[in-house]
């Protein structure tokens, strides 16, 4: 299955994407995993300038074309993102050109503003420091994003980690509305307020950390460890990961799931020939909400650049 985006000229977006954010960076592992993913049927890949995985992703796609796994680059949907240090009107186009060079591609299918945060131009330093934050020129940056689409270097443009308030600001100045908002979303962080808003505005939602993320702090994975999801998985004869991904898909949201393991990559695509019951939905809708990616500094739940819609904090 695929989703037609409501703005831009991108081909329809395949309903599950493969994420490539993984730390520490291991380009060979990324390249191998993308090739394995193409072999098992993935045609949608997500990267970002900040992840450092544009180059291995591009190499893998080029190799897949050489090996005849896909007929051409056009067969894959590729998303990349403008990092906060590039979030300045005059840096958008050069940054996309650099991204395209890394990817060895003529265009990305989708180019996103990574965070509603601008940092002083310069090398990536993470966690970001508060003194490096500067006011974000939403109008200027969005105009430059629109120019990227007009030039055909991005087939569609969008945002990531934007709340309804941030989206209001973009929509107020947009000639081309954002096609996508990619945010943290899973059964433990359902983002109902944001989803309703995006549905009304025709903005497609994509979900990162659909399985609860990569355990940055070693505290265990609340999605994969959820007892409610385990109960549903048992009843359906599926894994917890598949239940989480299917639930996201049934909300009309596109999961971007990261696995570098071929079996799990395959498993994560097997969510289209069965469905959740009304009772399953009832149970999942009552799961207490927990934002899993706490972020650092500027990107935290509490900070002034928060990506949390307050109404979503307590939806039980
Ligand atoms: P791995 O790469 O070893 O498969 P998210 O996509 O939410 O960021 O979560 C990805 C994490 O979940 C990764 O650490 C990934 O590890 C793991 N993972 C991916 N698919 C599955 C699955 N089907 N079952 C269990 N863990 C999975």
UniProtKB/TrEMBL annotation:
Record: residues binding substrate? 114
Cytoplasm found in the keyword field: no
Record's keyword terms, sorted? Oxidoreductase
Q: Which processes are annotated in GO (biological process)?
A: response to iron ion starvation; siderophore biosynthetic process
> What are the positions of the active site?
51
User: Which part of the chain is the NADP-dependent oxidoreductase domain?
Assistant: 16-287
Cross-referenced Gene3D superfamilies: NADP-dependent oxidoreductase domain
A molecular function annotated in GO for this UniProt entry is: 3''-deamino-3''-oxonicotianamine reductase activity
Positions of the record's site feature: Lowers pKa of active site Tyr: 81
The record's annotation in Pfam families points to: Aldo_ket_red
Keyword Oxidoreductase listed: yes
Q: Which family does it belong to?
A: Belongs to the aldo/keto reductase family.
Q: What is this protein called?
A: NADP-dependent oxidoreductase domain-containing protein
This protein's species is Urochloa decumbens
